[in-house]
Amino acid sequence: MDANLSSAHKILVLNTLAFTICFACWTLNGVLVTYLVDNNIFNWSVVETGWLLGIPILTGSIMRLPLGILTDKYGGKPVFSALLLLCSVPLFLLYFADSYWIYFLLSALFGMIGTGFAVGIAFTSAWYPKEWQGRALGVFGMGNAGAALTTFFAPTLLNYLSAEDPENGWRMLPILYGITLVIIGCIFLLFVKNKKVTAQNKSTKQLLEPLSNMRVWRFGLYYFLVFGLFVAFSQWLMPYYVSVYKTSLVLGGLLASAFSLPSGVIRAFGGYLSDKFGARKVMYWVLYSSLILSGLLMLPKMEILTPGKGITAKKTGIVKSFGNEKIILDNAEFAISAKPEIPQQTSVLPESFSWQEILVKQNERVQKKQLLAQGVTLIKFEAHIWVFSILVILIGIMWGIGKAAVYKHIPEYFPNEVGVVGGMVGLIGGLGGFIGPILFGYLLDFSGLWTSSWIFVFLISAISLFWMNQVIKKMTYNAAPHLKDRIEHVNNNKD
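Structure for NarK/NasA family nitrate transporter, as requested:
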């Protein structure tokens, strides 16, 4: 058993390394396309740029299911090796890209590297016993940190490569990524031993049978939240920080990396927690945390101007004089609150500022109960950048734990179909990464609120939690239907 685990650990290290590189390549366009547009190397529109950011995520998500099936049938070594080597080709060809559609096509092709997750999950699962599945898959999932590596290092590499040739220096970056894929692919071919899950004498139709199980789609919804929206916000947070908090691109990139990196690294801990406490209990923690944190993040940075306490005349009279501090009506004086100095930035909690604005003129005759000065109240909520960032990092960490918990479920319920089920769940999650930024853009246009993206997260968290609760109630009733009658009988006696 120890020898088997030792071999499994070696495979896990190589699997995790390969997946980290795959994820770094998969998110390459987030940095490279932004650089090309910002430096006017290509004059692509906002719509064209959005599609170039999303197309690798789309192809890498759609192809997860067929690659998962292939891994179940033939094992991880041939599939992963072929994927790494073949996806290096479009990266090399990006050196020659000189038009939008060529770049688009090559982006779609190298985006296939995103299927490395489905391949690696099935291959890792094949090597480990049930009691090790959560930890092993959690460690493998740490490869998500590859997104942070690209966000952090790629801008510096681009600046270095473009120092002497600003127009074409960028072309060497995809070459470097392609070379890295070739090296990892050769390592897989030479040093990895193949292994398949048991009971593989099945037709493709039989392999696809688990997809008719509603449980697969429920897991897919969980993964849409914890992985798909993680990928979406990995791209969306950069413009969020720049537009809402007026940060520089460099600071925005660092803060976005602070969201991506912990979420990827913590996944291994999520696997440990899933093994120790059970995946279902961990998912409860994750969903409740996502609901609470997204609820806090929904509060926008805003200023609300609303009517405040005004001053009315107690009797009919003539305005004798008025100033910044008082109004004199006949012989009566009314104190006026002057407008305070409003700071540009306020504290963490909302602050209110109230004052009164005079509506009458000197020698004007006013009637009883007429408004002499209207009250104005300004409520200012700063949604402080550091508080916002801490909440974002926390929700990223909980999503990282949730990713491991979702995939802990799969080998427990579908031990011989990890590739196909994991591929389908990964496909749904990956589509979240593709759809998310596009949907966030439409929500922003419709509502005018940047925090509309967090409202969407809140709704998905609430739906996932409700669905899980309903399933648990149904399972409890099916396992012990007499408990329901007993509980109702006890409650009736108390009433």
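The chain has two domains: 5-300+385-479, 302-381.
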